[in-house]
Protein backbone atom coordinates (compact mmCIF):
# COMPACT_ATOMS: atom_id res chain seq x y z
CA UNK A 1 0.00 0.00 0.00
CA UNK A 2 2.67 2.48 1.01
CA UNK A 3 4.74 1.59 -2.05
CA UNK A 4 1.69 2.42 -4.22
CA UNK A 5 1.49 5.86 -2.55
CA UNK A 6 5.22 6.33 -3.09
CA UNK A 7 4.78 5.36 -6.74
CA UNK A 8 1.95 7.86 -7.10
CA UNK A 9 4.05 10.53 -5.41
CA UNK A 10 6.91 9.68 -7.71
CA UNK A 11 4.77 9.92 -10.80
CA UNK A 12 3.28 13.22 -9.60
CA UNK A 13 6.78 14.45 -9.04
CA UNK A 14 7.73 13.38 -12.59
CA UNK A 15 4.63 15.08 -13.91
CA UNK A 16 5.83 18.29 -12.27
CA UNK A 17 9.26 17.93 -13.78
CA UNK A 18 7.75 17.44 -17.21
CA UNK A 19 5.43 20.46 -16.79
CA UNK A 20 8.27 22.67 -15.64
CA UNK A 21 10.38 21.54 -18.61
CA UNK A 22 7.53 22.28 -21.01
CA UNK A 23 7.06 25.73 -19.44
CA UNK A 24 10.76 26.51 -19.55
CA UNK A 25 10.95 25.39 -23.18
CA UNK A 26 7.87 27.49 -23.95
CA UNK A 27 9.46 30.46 -22.28
CA UNK A 28 12.66 29.96 -24.23
CA UNK A 29 10.51 29.80 -27.34
CA UNK A 30 9.67 33.46 -26.73
CA UNK A 31 13.23 34.59 -26.26
CA UNK A 32 16.72 33.59 -27.15
CA UNK A 33 19.02 31.09 -25.55
CA UNK A 34 21.38 32.28 -22.85
CA UNK A 35 24.57 30.95 -24.44
CA UNK A 36 23.66 32.38 -27.83
CA UNK A 37 22.96 35.78 -26.28
CA UNK A 38 26.41 35.71 -24.69
CA UNK A 39 27.95 34.64 -28.00
CA UNK A 40 26.24 37.53 -29.79
CA UNK A 41 27.70 39.97 -27.28
CA UNK A 42 31.17 38.48 -27.85
CA UNK A 43 30.66 38.83 -31.57
CA UNK A 44 29.66 42.46 -31.13
CA UNK A 45 32.77 43.16 -29.06
CA UNK A 46 34.93 41.58 -31.76
CA UNK A 47 33.23 43.54 -34.55
CA UNK A 48 33.62 46.80 -32.65
CA UNK A 49 37.20 46.24 -31.52
CA UNK A 50 38.84 48.58 -30.65
CA UNK A 51 36.43 51.50 -30.78
CA UNK A 52 33.48 50.87 -33.12
CA UNK A 53 29.81 51.61 -32.55
CA UNK A 54 28.01 49.00 -34.60
CA UNK A 55 25.00 47.03 -33.34
CA UNK A 56 23.71 49.49 -30.73
CA UNK A 57 20.63 47.38 -30.09
CA UNK A 58 22.72 44.44 -28.90
CA UNK A 59 22.84 45.28 -25.20
CA UNK A 60 23.43 43.26 -22.07
CA UNK A 61 20.75 42.76 -19.46
CA UNK A 62 18.51 40.22 -17.72
CA UNK A 63 15.73 38.72 -19.83
CA UNK A 64 16.62 40.62 -23.00
CA UNK A 65 15.32 38.87 -26.07
CA UNK A 66 18.26 38.73 -28.47
CA UNK A 67 15.96 37.34 -31.16
CA UNK A 68 14.60 40.87 -31.48
CA UNK A 69 18.02 42.40 -32.03
CA UNK A 70 18.83 43.94 -35.41
CA UNK A 71 20.37 41.55 -37.96
CA UNK A 72 19.45 38.48 -35.92
CA UNK A 73 16.74 36.00 -36.79
CA UNK A 74 15.73 33.05 -34.61
CA UNK A 75 13.63 30.01 -35.16
CA UNK A 76 10.43 30.88 -33.29
CA UNK A 77 9.97 27.31 -32.08
CA UNK A 78 13.44 26.52 -30.80
CA UNK A 79 14.70 30.04 -30.04
CA UNK A 80 17.99 29.23 -31.78
CA UNK A 81 19.63 31.88 -33.94
CA UNK A 82 19.23 30.80 -37.58
CA UNK A 83 20.31 33.93 -39.46
CA UNK A 84 23.01 36.54 -38.95
CA UNK A 85 23.09 39.36 -41.53
CA UNK A 86 26.36 41.11 -40.84
CA UNK A 87 26.55 43.00 -44.15
CA UNK A 88 28.87 46.03 -44.02
CA UNK A 89 28.93 45.75 -40.27
CA UNK A 90 32.32 47.22 -39.60
CA UNK A 91 32.28 50.85 -38.64
CA UNK A 92 34.38 52.53 -41.32
CA UNK A 93 36.06 54.76 -38.75
CA UNK A 94 37.97 51.69 -37.55
CA UNK A 95 40.97 51.58 -39.83
CA UNK A 96 42.20 48.23 -38.55
CA UNK A 97 41.28 45.18 -40.66
CA UNK A 98 38.70 42.74 -39.38
CA UNK A 99 39.78 39.08 -39.69
CA UNK A 100 37.27 36.25 -39.72
CA UNK A 101 37.30 34.17 -36.51
CA UNK A 102 35.20 30.98 -36.74
CA UNK A 103 34.98 30.51 -32.96
CA UNK A 104 32.70 33.52 -32.78
CA UNK A 105 30.06 31.64 -34.74
CA UNK A 106 30.26 28.07 -33.44
CA UNK A 107 27.77 28.65 -30.61
CA UNK A 108 25.02 29.17 -33.17
CA UNK A 109 24.42 25.46 -33.70
CA UNK A 110 21.35 25.93 -35.89
CA UNK A 111 22.69 28.77 -38.01
CA UNK A 112 21.32 28.54 -41.55
CA UNK A 113 22.35 31.84 -43.10
CA UNK A 114 25.51 33.83 -42.50
CA UNK A 115 26.20 37.00 -44.44
CA UNK A 116 29.53 38.77 -44.09
CA UNK A 117 29.03 40.79 -47.27
CA UNK A 118 30.98 44.03 -47.58
CA UNK A 119 33.40 43.78 -44.67
CA UNK A 120 36.68 43.85 -46.63
CA UNK A 121 37.84 40.76 -44.74
CA UNK A 122 41.47 40.19 -45.81
CA UNK A 123 41.54 36.66 -44.37
CA UNK A 124 41.08 34.82 -41.11
CA UNK A 125 42.67 34.35 -37.71
CA UNK A 126 45.12 31.44 -37.65
CA UNK A 127 43.32 28.11 -37.12
CA UNK A 128 39.96 29.91 -37.14
CA UNK A 129 39.22 29.74 -40.86
CA UNK A 130 35.96 28.88 -42.64
CA UNK A 131 36.71 25.13 -42.45
CA UNK A 132 35.64 25.22 -38.81
CA UNK A 133 32.11 26.21 -39.85
CA UNK A 134 31.64 22.58 -40.93
CA UNK A 135 30.49 22.02 -37.33
CA UNK A 136 27.34 24.00 -38.21
CA UNK A 137 25.33 21.20 -39.78
CA UNK A 138 22.46 23.45 -40.91
CA UNK A 139 24.50 26.14 -42.63
CA UNK A 140 23.00 26.61 -46.09
CA UNK A 141 23.80 30.17 -47.11
CA UNK A 142 27.23 31.77 -46.90
CA UNK A 143 27.61 35.22 -48.40
CA UNK A 144 31.22 36.41 -48.58
CA UNK A 145 30.70 39.03 -51.30
CA UNK A 146 32.79 42.22 -51.23
CA UNK A 147 35.69 41.05 -49.12
CA UNK A 148 39.38 40.72 -49.98
CA UNK A 149 39.74 36.94 -49.84
CA UNK A 150 42.35 35.35 -52.12
CA UNK A 151 42.55 31.91 -53.72
CA UNK A 152 43.46 30.23 -50.46
CA UNK A 153 39.86 30.68 -49.27
CA UNK A 154 38.69 28.03 -51.74
CA UNK A 155 40.09 24.96 -50.01
CA UNK A 156 38.88 26.21 -46.60
CA UNK A 157 35.28 25.89 -47.79
CA UNK A 158 35.51 22.28 -48.97
CA UNK A 159 34.03 20.65 -45.89
CA UNK A 160 30.90 22.81 -45.69
CA UNK A 161 28.76 20.08 -47.17
CA UNK A 162 25.40 21.53 -46.12
CA UNK A 163 25.90 24.70 -48.18
CA UNK A 164 23.33 25.43 -50.90
CA UNK A 165 24.40 28.99 -51.70
CA UNK A 166 27.90 30.41 -51.78
CA UNK A 167 28.81 33.90 -52.95
CA UNK A 168 32.47 34.82 -53.43
CA UNK A 169 31.78 37.79 -55.69
CA UNK A 170 34.00 40.88 -55.52
CA UNK A 171 36.99 39.28 -53.83
CA UNK A 172 40.64 38.84 -54.85
CA UNK A 173 40.45 35.50 -56.63
CA UNK A 174 42.98 35.33 -59.45
CA UNK A 175 43.72 32.96 -62.27
CA UNK A 176 47.08 31.30 -61.98
CA UNK A 177 48.82 29.58 -64.84
CA UNK A 178 49.77 26.65 -62.68
CA UNK A 179 46.80 26.22 -60.41
CA UNK A 180 47.50 23.78 -57.59
CA UNK A 181 44.67 21.23 -57.72
CA UNK A 182 44.63 20.72 -53.93
CA UNK A 183 43.65 24.38 -53.63
CA UNK A 184 40.50 23.99 -55.70
CA UNK A 185 36.97 24.33 -54.38
CA UNK A 186 35.61 20.79 -54.03
CA UNK A 187 33.16 18.60 -52.19
CA UNK A 188 30.14 20.90 -52.07
CA UNK A 189 27.67 18.36 -53.39
CA UNK A 190 24.58 20.19 -52.13
CA UNK A 191 25.55 23.55 -53.55
CA UNK A 192 22.91 24.94 -55.93
CA UNK A 193 24.03 28.53 -56.48
CA UNK A 194 27.64 29.69 -56.79
CA UNK A 195 29.01 33.09 -57.68
CA UNK A 196 32.51 34.30 -58.49
CA UNK A 197 31.44 37.54 -60.16
CA UNK A 198 33.86 40.47 -60.21
CA UNK A 199 37.11 38.63 -59.50
CA UNK A 200 40.14 38.28 -61.78
CA UNK A 201 39.80 34.66 -62.76
CA UNK A 202 41.24 34.02 -66.22
CA UNK A 203 41.61 30.24 -66.39
CA UNK A 204 39.09 27.53 -67.16
CA UNK A 205 36.70 26.74 -64.35
CA UNK A 206 38.19 23.26 -63.88
CA UNK A 207 41.36 24.88 -62.60
CA UNK A 208 39.66 26.34 -59.52
CA UNK A 209 36.65 24.05 -59.10
CA UNK A 210 36.47 20.25 -58.92
CA UNK A 211 33.45 20.13 -61.16
CA UNK A 212 32.53 16.47 -60.62
CA UNK A 213 31.65 17.20 -57.00
CA UNK A 214 29.08 19.89 -57.77
CA UNK A 215 26.24 17.54 -58.60
CA UNK A 216 23.47 19.89 -57.41
CA UNK A 217 24.72 23.06 -59.10
CA UNK A 218 21.94 24.93 -60.91
CA UNK A 219 23.27 28.46 -61.18
CA UNK A 220 26.79 29.71 -61.81
CA UNK A 221 27.84 33.34 -62.04
CA UNK A 222 31.28 34.01 -63.49
CA UNK A 223 30.47 37.47 -64.82
CA UNK A 224 33.10 40.21 -64.87
CA UNK A 225 36.21 38.07 -64.78
CA UNK A 226 38.75 37.59 -67.59
CA UNK A 227 37.76 34.11 -68.66
CA UNK A 228 38.15 32.97 -72.27
CA UNK A 229 37.12 29.32 -72.26
CA UNK A 230 34.10 27.46 -70.96
CA UNK A 231 32.56 24.08 -71.59
CA UNK A 232 29.01 22.88 -70.87
CA UNK A 233 28.23 21.68 -67.35
CA UNK A 234 25.30 19.31 -67.56
CA UNK A 235 22.62 20.04 -64.99
CA UNK A 236 23.35 23.75 -64.91
CA UNK A 237 20.32 25.91 -65.69
CA UNK A 238 21.53 29.48 -65.30
CA UNK A 239 24.94 30.58 -66.55
CA UNK A 240 26.19 34.15 -66.35
CA UNK A 241 29.31 34.82 -68.38
CA UNK A 242 28.89 38.54 -69.05
CA UNK A 243 31.85 40.88 -69.00
CA UNK A 244 34.53 38.30 -69.77
CA UNK A 245 36.82 37.74 -72.76
CA UNK A 246 34.84 35.22 -74.78
CA UNK A 247 35.04 35.43 -78.56
CA UNK A 248 32.82 33.80 -81.17
CA UNK A 249 34.21 30.36 -80.47
CA UNK A 250 32.28 30.24 -77.17
CA UNK A 251 29.09 29.30 -79.03
CA UNK A 252 30.73 26.28 -80.62
CA UNK A 253 32.24 25.19 -77.34
CA UNK A 254 28.85 25.41 -75.62
CA UNK A 255 27.16 23.36 -78.33
CA UNK A 256 25.03 20.61 -76.86
CA UNK A 257 24.51 22.44 -73.59
CA UNK A 258 20.99 21.17 -73.31
CA UNK A 259 20.17 21.88 -69.67
CA UNK A 260 20.84 25.62 -69.70
CA UNK A 261 17.71 27.80 -69.50
CA UNK A 262 19.31 31.20 -69.19
CA UNK A 263 22.61 32.21 -70.77
CA UNK A 264 24.19 35.64 -70.46
CA UNK A 265 27.04 36.40 -72.85
CA UNK A 266 26.64 40.17 -72.84
CA UNK A 267 29.69 42.41 -72.83
CA UNK A 268 32.14 39.93 -74.31
CA UNK A 269 34.27 39.94 -77.48
CA UNK A 270 31.82 38.43 -79.94
CA UNK A 271 32.32 40.16 -83.30
CA UNK A 272 31.17 40.15 -86.89
CA UNK A 273 28.96 37.34 -88.05
CA UNK A 274 27.32 34.84 -85.79
CA UNK A 275 26.43 31.56 -87.44
CA UNK A 276 23.04 30.86 -86.03
CA UNK A 277 23.44 27.09 -86.32
CA UNK A 278 25.76 27.39 -83.38
CA UNK A 279 22.76 28.02 -81.16
CA UNK A 280 21.41 24.64 -82.11
CA UNK A 281 21.51 22.23 -79.23
CA UNK A 282 20.40 24.73 -76.60
CA UNK A 283 17.16 22.83 -76.41
CA UNK A 284 15.93 24.27 -73.12
CA UNK A 285 17.11 27.85 -73.57
CA UNK A 286 14.47 30.34 -72.43
CA UNK A 287 16.54 33.52 -72.15
CA UNK A 288 19.62 34.57 -74.11
CA UNK A 289 21.58 37.79 -73.71
CA UNK A 290 24.00 38.75 -76.48
CA UNK A 291 23.89 42.50 -75.82
CA UNK A 292 26.91 44.74 -75.84
CA UNK A 293 29.07 42.75 -78.22
CA UNK A 294 30.35 43.76 -81.65
CA UNK A 295 28.00 41.47 -83.52
CA UNK A 296 27.24 42.79 -87.01
CA UNK A 297 25.09 40.11 -88.48
CA UNK A 298 23.49 36.76 -88.01
CA UNK A 299 24.21 34.29 -90.74
CA UNK A 300 21.80 31.64 -91.91
CA UNK A 301 19.02 32.16 -89.37
CA UNK A 302 17.07 29.33 -91.01
CA UNK A 303 19.66 27.10 -89.39
CA UNK A 304 18.06 27.42 -85.96
CA UNK A 305 16.09 24.26 -85.37
CA UNK A 306 15.74 23.84 -81.70
CA UNK A 307 15.03 27.07 -79.89
CA UNK A 308 11.37 26.29 -79.24
CA UNK A 309 11.57 27.41 -75.64
CA UNK A 310 13.30 30.76 -76.17
CA UNK A 311 11.13 33.45 -74.59
CA UNK A 312 13.46 36.41 -74.11
CA UNK A 313 16.28 37.55 -76.35
CA UNK A 314 18.47 40.53 -75.50
CA UNK A 315 20.25 42.15 -78.44
CA UNK A 316 20.90 45.63 -77.08
CA UNK A 317 23.99 47.71 -77.83
CA UNK A 318 24.80 45.66 -80.89
CA UNK A 319 25.87 46.73 -84.37
CA UNK A 320 23.80 44.89 -86.88
CA UNK A 321 22.48 45.40 -90.34
CA UNK A 322 18.82 45.41 -90.98
CA UNK A 323 18.76 42.59 -93.50
CA UNK A 324 20.27 39.92 -91.35
CA UNK A 325 18.49 41.13 -88.27
CA UNK A 326 15.10 41.07 -89.86
CA UNK A 327 15.92 37.64 -91.23
CA UNK A 328 16.89 36.54 -87.76
CA UNK A 329 13.73 37.94 -86.25
CA UNK A 330 11.57 36.41 -88.92
CA UNK A 331 13.13 33.04 -88.41
CA UNK A 332 12.99 33.30 -84.65
CA UNK A 333 9.34 34.25 -84.80
CA UNK A 334 8.65 31.42 -87.16
CA UNK A 335 10.56 28.94 -85.08
CA UNK A 336 9.61 30.03 -81.70
CA UNK A 337 5.94 30.63 -81.08
CA UNK A 338 6.91 31.21 -77.45
CA UNK A 339 9.27 34.18 -77.99
CA UNK A 340 7.65 36.94 -75.93
CA UNK A 341 10.27 39.61 -75.65
CA UNK A 342 13.03 40.89 -77.83
CA UNK A 343 15.16 43.65 -76.39
CA UNK A 344 16.89 45.92 -78.88
CA UNK A 345 17.60 48.64 -76.40
CA UNK A 346 20.53 50.75 -77.54
CA UNK A 347 20.65 48.92 -80.85
CA UNK A 348 22.25 50.69 -83.78
CA UNK A 349 20.82 49.82 -87.16
CA UNK A 350 22.52 50.49 -90.47
CA UNK A 351 22.08 53.89 -92.12
CA UNK A 352 18.72 54.84 -93.51
CA UNK A 353 16.81 52.75 -91.03
CA UNK A 354 16.59 55.21 -88.17
CA UNK A 355 12.96 54.31 -87.54
CA UNK A 356 14.29 51.06 -86.10
CA UNK A 357 16.33 52.84 -83.49
CA UNK A 358 15.20 52.29 -79.95
C1 LIG B 1 12.39 25.68 -36.51
O1 LIG B 1 12.72 24.53 -35.80
C2 LIG B 1 11.80 23.46 -35.98
C3 LIG B 1 12.20 22.34 -35.03
O2 LIG B 1 13.56 22.02 -35.17
C4 LIG B 1 11.85 23.04 -37.44
O3 LIG B 1 10.94 22.00 -37.66
C5 LIG B 1 11.51 24.24 -38.31
O4 LIG B 1 11.64 23.88 -39.66
C6 LIG B 1 12.41 25.40 -37.99
N1 LIG B 1 11.96 26.56 -38.73
C7 LIG B 1 12.81 27.32 -39.45
C8 LIG B 1 12.21 28.51 -40.12
O5 LIG B 1 14.00 27.06 -39.53
C1 LIG C 1 38.66 34.24 -31.73
O1 LIG C 1 37.44 34.16 -31.03
C2 LIG C 1 37.54 33.47 -29.77
C3 LIG C 1 36.13 33.34 -29.21
O2 LIG C 1 35.58 34.59 -28.93
C4 LIG C 1 38.47 34.22 -28.86
O3 LIG C 1 38.60 33.52 -27.63
C5 LIG C 1 39.83 34.39 -29.52
O4 LIG C 1 40.67 35.20 -28.74
C6 LIG C 1 39.67 35.02 -30.91
N1 LIG C 1 40.96 35.05 -31.56
C7 LIG C 1 41.52 36.18 -31.97
C8 LIG C 1 42.89 36.07 -32.52
O5 LIG C 1 40.93 37.25 -31.92
C1 LIG D 1 45.94 34.70 -49.00
O1 LIG D 1 45.25 34.87 -47.76
C2 LIG D 1 45.78 34.12 -46.69
C3 LIG D 1 44.83 34.25 -45.51
O2 LIG D 1 44.68 35.57 -45.11
C4 LIG D 1 47.19 34.61 -46.39
O3 LIG D 1 47.74 33.84 -45.34
C5 LIG D 1 48.05 34.46 -47.65
O4 LIG D 1 49.31 35.02 -47.46
C6 LIG D 1 47.39 35.14 -48.86
N1 LIG D 1 48.12 34.77 -50.05
C7 LIG D 1 48.51 35.66 -50.94
C8 LIG D 1 49.23 35.12 -52.13
O5 LIG D 1 48.29 36.85 -50.81
C1 LIG E 1 46.05 34.91 -65.87
O1 LIG E 1 46.45 36.03 -65.12
C2 LIG E 1 47.76 35.92 -64.59
C3 LIG E 1 47.98 37.15 -63.73
O2 LIG E 1 47.04 37.17 -62.69
C4 LIG E 1 48.77 35.83 -65.72
O3 LIG E 1 50.05 35.68 -65.20
C5 LIG E 1 48.40 34.64 -66.60
O4 LIG E 1 49.26 34.60 -67.73
C6 LIG E 1 46.97 34.70 -67.06
N1 LIG E 1 46.61 33.45 -67.73
C7 LIG E 1 45.85 33.41 -68.82
C8 LIG E 1 45.52 32.05 -69.32
O5 LIG E 1 45.42 34.41 -69.36
C1 LIG F 1 49.50 22.65 -53.24
O1 LIG F 1 48.99 23.40 -52.15
C2 LIG F 1 49.05 22.72 -50.91
C3 LIG F 1 48.32 23.57 -49.89
O2 LIG F 1 48.56 24.92 -50.05
C4 LIG F 1 50.52 22.46 -50.56
O3 LIG F 1 50.59 21.75 -49.35
C5 LIG F 1 51.16 21.63 -51.68
O4 LIG F 1 52.52 21.47 -51.44
C6 LIG F 1 50.96 22.31 -53.04
N1 LIG F 1 51.41 21.43 -54.09
C7 LIG F 1 52.14 21.86 -55.13
C8 LIG F 1 52.49 20.83 -56.14
O5 LIG F 1 52.51 23.03 -55.23
C1 LIG G 1 38.98 32.77 -79.52
O1 LIG G 1 39.27 32.31 -78.20
C2 LIG G 1 39.89 31.04 -78.17
C3 LIG G 1 40.01 30.64 -76.72
O2 LIG G 1 40.76 31.60 -76.01
C4 LIG G 1 41.22 31.09 -78.90
O3 LIG G 1 41.82 29.81 -78.90
C5 LIG G 1 41.01 31.56 -80.31
O4 LIG G 1 42.25 31.75 -80.97
C6 LIG G 1 40.24 32.88 -80.35
N1 LIG G 1 39.88 33.20 -81.71
C7 LIG G 1 40.08 34.41 -82.23
C8 LIG G 1 39.65 34.59 -83.63
O5 LIG G 1 40.59 35.31 -81.59
C1 LIG H 1 19.42 43.74 -98.11
O1 LIG H 1 18.58 42.87 -98.88
C2 LIG H 1 18.18 43.41 -100.14
C3 LIG H 1 17.18 42.47 -100.78
O2 LIG H 1 17.54 41.13 -100.58
C4 LIG H 1 19.45 43.63 -101.03
O3 LIG H 1 19.09 44.18 -102.24
C5 LIG H 1 20.39 44.56 -100.31
O4 LIG H 1 21.59 44.70 -101.02
C6 LIG H 1 20.73 44.01 -98.88
N1 LIG H 1 21.49 44.99 -98.14
C7 LIG H 1 22.58 44.68 -97.47
C8 LIG H 1 23.26 45.81 -96.75
O5 LIG H 1 23.03 43.53 -97.40
TrEMBL record:
Cellular component per GO, a single term: membrane
Source taxon at top rank: Eukaryota
Presence of keyword Cell membrane: no
Annotated SUPFAM superfamilies: L domain-like
Subcellular location: Membrane
Keyword Signal applies: yes
Short name of one Pfam family: LRR_8
TM ranges: 12-30
Topology with respect to the bilayer: Single-pass type I membrane protein
Keywords: Glycoprotein, Leucine-rich repeat, Membrane, Repeat, Signal, Transmembrane, Transmembrane helix
Leucine-rich repeat-containing N-terminal plant-type domain mapped to chain residues: 34-75
InterPro entries: Leu-rich_rpt, LRR_dom_sf, LRR_N_plant-typ, RLP23-like
Main localization of the protein described in the UniProt heading: membrane
Name of this protein: Leucine-rich repeat-containing N-terminal plant-type domain-containing protein
Organism encoding this protein: Actinidia rufa
